[in-house]
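Journal club prep — side note

Before the paper discussion, L.F. wants everyone to see what a predicted structure for a comparable chain looks like in token form. Sequence:
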Amino acid sequence: MSLADIIRNGVERIATNAEIKEFFQHLDGETLVVNLIGDSTVTFTVNNGELAVHEGEAQDAPAITDIEPQKFVGFINGKTPFGGLFIAEFAEYLQPRKGKFDEMGGDFWLLNPISEALLQLYREDPEFRGMVDSFAHPSSKA
């Protein structure tokens, strides 16, 4: 299973959470593209207040970045919380092709609520945790 598949599965699960739905109501129109190097590209969008993810790259996105899949896994399993990164650390994780960083993530700030929601799901849902852990440690059985 690709990381893009795991992310899509996770977003489908969190999209039904009332607290998460309420949070994303205020982010309508936001778009972020994440190229998972060697895996695939996913586009996160917020339409009508609902977070969605699809495979492929939205060319009109204000933020497009490349990231190693294992580093993105750190955002999901809490080993590297996006909200805990300092501006000097962003370049260790994200290689922007479009958009800029600032102290709050800049054009990439949408990764913070997405990673927080996926982290919450990772902690609460054993099936999702197993998928993430299997990707993070392919030789171990989750």
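L.F.'s comment for the group: The domain at 3-128 is CATH 3.30.1050.10 (Nonspecific Lipid-transfer Protein; Chain A). Keep this in mind when we get to the figures.
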